[in-house]
Specification:
The chain is of the alpha+beta class and 99 residues long. The protein has one domain. The chain is built from two helices and four strands; from the N terminus they run ααββββ. The radius of gyration is 16 Å and the shape is globular. Its main location: membrane. This is Transmembrane 9 superfamily member.
């Protein structure tokens, strides 16, 4: 299932979310383009960079749990190229421990 990105409590850009004006094709496809706090560049390797520090309420944590359970995925564009990924996944490592 796709969703509006900020339906989940992701970190937002420092200056607030900016929404792109939609063209006719984007309106028909129901795409909503929004800014994110991610600083990406081609051919620049980065690992484990913190975007923000956020403490989740029980309700916010439950939103993420539900999205992972229901196989939600996101779609972003980077230099007009689509990127898809799942919100998360559950891996059972040992009984009663999940990652």
């Amino acid at each position: 299932m796709t969703f509006e990105y900020y339906m989940l409590p992701y970190c937002k850009p420092a200056g607030g979310v900016k929404w792109k004006t939609l063209g006719m094709g984007e309106v028909v496809d129901a795409n909503r383009m929004a800014s994110t706090p991610y600083d990406l560049a081609f051919r620049v390797e980065r690992t484990n960079q913190r975007v923000c520090k956020k403490e989740l309420s029980k309700e916010d944590a439950q939103k993420f749990r539900d999205a992972v359970r229901d196989d939600w995925y996101f779609q972003m564009y980077f230099d007009d190229l689509p990127v898809w990924g799942f919100v998360g996944k559950v891996e059972k490592i040992i009984p009663n421990q999940y990652e």
